[in-house]
Amino acid sequence: MHAVAGTPYISQKGADVGAFDSGKRAFVTLTADKNAAVPNNGSTQHDTVHVNTLLMITESNGYWVVIAEMVDDV
Prior knowledge:
Elements: E1 16-22, E2 25-39, E3 46-60, E4 63-72
Antiparallel strand pairs: 1-2, 2-3, 3-4
């Protein structure tokens, strides 16, 4: 999991790690939340929004498959 530590999906507070089995495939999940600065209608000012992140990792036919999602609370 050190490989994803510097990504936007893992906040400085860390992430919750979980796992589940679906269709004979194991998934490792990392969930976190953080505040992110986003541009305010193209101006130089930024708004702060609360963001929930999800990173799911599995293996398929010898390849790592990563599913990433980042959604705000609005």
